[in-house]
Give the backbone structure.
Amino acid sequence: MSIMSTVKIDELTNALKQTFIDSDDLKCRELTVAGKRCLLSYIDGGTDKLLLEQDVIRPLSKAMSLEPPYLDSLTEAVLYSEEITVLPLSNSAGAIADGDVAFFIEDDDSTYVFSLRKPEKRSVTEPPTSSVLKGPREGFIEELKTNLSLIRRRLKTPDLSVKFFQVGRYSTTTVAVLHVHGIADKHIVDEICDKISRIDVDGVIDSAYITSFIQSKKNSFFLQAGTTEKPDVAEAKLLEGRIVILVDGSPIAITLPYLVFEDVQDGYDYYSGDWRASMIRLFRIMGALLTIFLPGAYIALQTYHFQLLPLKFLMTLMAATTGIPFPPALEMLLVLVLFEILNQASIRMPRYLGISLSVVGAIVLGDTAVKSGLISSPSVLVIALSAIGIFCVPDQVGTLSILRLIFLCISAVTGFVGMIILALVIVAYLAGLENFGTPYLAPYAPRINPDLQDGMLKSGNSSMERRPYSIPTVNRTRIKKNARP
């Protein structure tokens, strides 16, 4: 915005309207304060008009004097509780676009900013992706300040550090990087902040945009950052020495560094018994393995290694697959594609129609396809078990879906031999991955014995005296020995 050094209210109003391309929601209100012409400018819809009228306009209209320094005069005149920000005129358009109220005084070359935002936001509720039987039920929402307050309420310490960035040439989205000073590794914090500060993109719509810019392996389909919608989980990550990234407009928080075994863990594990938590974690791992290997193993057994099957089971399988017009691999691929299409359709349709679609897809289409002889009932059963198992680790749905398809294709060509070789290659690849100084498969590759107490099996919370050695921190002590029961 091109604005003259000596401000004239009429010319300033025209300059603002030209800058915002004659936007009808731009409001420019002229008023006289102690004999001086002034201008209030803001975007309609994002400003609390009641506060603007009561705390700013009415006190200014009754002000007896408005003399330099104007900041002191405004501070004394208005009832505004926060600090009034002073910006150069060249930055006034950005402040208005950000939802603030800009105040101009004729013949003064400064912009005085009042933050009177009133954004629409949903209430804090239990997140749909992280429901729990026990434990806190609050979840992040799309408003950054609310999300920060949820964490601040749990971590009442001045050591909680929050650093803000404005990312996006057009969106200027606020991104907050959180860490606990004295626990998190400063080098990792600086590296993450440096990567975020160098992001140059049109706009940031969701926290996933930030993840794509800070991950180390750009083309890998394996997750390289943890996510959570629960403040209590974010707090636990911060106390372990991790860094949490919050993005304005997104309810998903990013946690770094990231370990793949984090997705086997759940907040409920720490609010239930240790044996129960360990058993549930093993079931989650079994579900993930079923998702990846079951369709491929079924094809390998049916095509290349049928001699490994018990005779009665083999006879049942042959009876069920007799007359199917497709080869086993093509049949399994067809069923998998149908399930994926039904899944995507049910997710994107309205909730009540989605339930009807699930019934139609599962009962009508599935039963009809089996009875017509296009697909066999064992194939439907295998894919159904695989589809159920994939949701045992919901954060890994995308990765597990890709791996399932790859193992299915490999098994159709080479059988168990190809599946074993591919599994070894993937494990070797993952063992070589690092995430901000943290081995991807820690604490098992490399083996870190102290961290095994919170791995696949979980020990009691009171026995975890040290923070995870898998994550670089500057303070390992979590529980002092004299504090143990």
